[in-house]
Design a protein that fits this description.
Length: 486
Amino acid sequence: MMEAAALWLQPALVAVLALRVAAGEADAPWLVLGALIAPLVALLARVRRPAGRNPVAAAAAAGAVTALLAANFLLAADAATLLGGAPWQGVSVAAGLAVLAPGARRLAAPALALGIVALALPLAAVTLATATAPWTAWTRGGLRPALTFSEASAWVQDGERFARPARLTFADGQRVTALTAGVYRVIERDAAPPTVRDWRLASGETLTLRPGDELSVETGARLRFEAGRRVPGAPASGAAWADAPARGPWMLPAALGGLVTLAGGALALGAATGRRGAPAPSSPVLLLAGVTAATGWGVYAAAAAPDLALSGSLLALWLRLPPLALGPRAGVPLAALAAAGILLLGVGATVALRRRLAAATRPQPVLWAGVVALAAVLTAWPVDPWRLLTLGLGLAAAMWTPAMLAAGAPGGVVGSIVGGVAFAALAGLPALTAAPAPAAWLEALTHYPALVALPLGWAAARTVDAMLATEDAPAGRRSPHSQTGA
């Protein structure tokens, strides 16, 4: 269904995939694979019961929709930051539009299709202008000896703003110019124990950093760096970006956690309508196009300008890459087209989320307004968009999916409760432990609690279903020897 595809291709998910590919995150290939496979599994799945009959699953649906909306609102916050405004201004506009979003099913499909086209056209223009296929751009990016600031970088010429708090680690010494007044914290690690210094800088003052130093930057801070110096926090080289050293068998728990979270969340979002029959062919095509476009944007951004991911902005890649590759005259309109594509994806996703929440609970405008308001409040905390996405999808996987896979209402309720308790316990585990470096499997469980919560909830639901089926069976079928004498 087109609505299921619109639910999955959230603008935050598409933007996060592109950003993590551009930044060379070790789990980027797994996430791209999961983002492509998970919705296809959901489109082919058959659910037994609608989640709306389960009040616990209905509450989980409201929580999951809230987290997904908050992740999408962060794009509006990024847009406001890049324009020199406050993040809350962008969130307020996005939340106001979301409250007024109509519940018409027919609006989600055209918004999704037009959004993907708007994202694909600038990418195609970059491909033609550079005469470089995506796999060639990947190879060239992997051959770079170091990821450094170029002379044409906006970070070097006029400076750029940080969309969210960041901690930058410098591999080489360089001078950083503060273009916004404020307090900048530097952790010097050339001695034991490390030295922490707070520098109050006026606009235009510089700060000299040495190799190994860490600089803490607040949201909205604007900095200028030196050309030819390494991008702080970026991989050491193009080879480290293309084949991250952290990528290996030891990251298997995190990879499985990401796949289970994506698949379980997609099943809850995409299979909750009681759909029957085969999905429309257009849905898999649009899903493939959306995930492929996000991956392509990340690859070209890393090859052309590895500093595009520095600010942490979900929109920086889409707004900066076309002007860099094509020049301002042709690139600025294409960047605006890409921004329009993100906006259209947001419209389609918001309409679909409102309909899905109404199907899981009750179609009350007050409930939708409350969910939108709570999502806007969540953006006030310095939370990572990917964390919001995994929490929303994980909550849906742990509590919403077992209810839909259960054969009866009691089993669905028990499965939702067990999955929710397991999810909350694992997600809150870091607050209860003081271990500075947890094991890989423990870190995977805390980042992706659905890895355990979903199987536990599903097993609890199936157990209750089996017990009730045994009790409801006829006496002769329950005990085949009941007619045999002693």
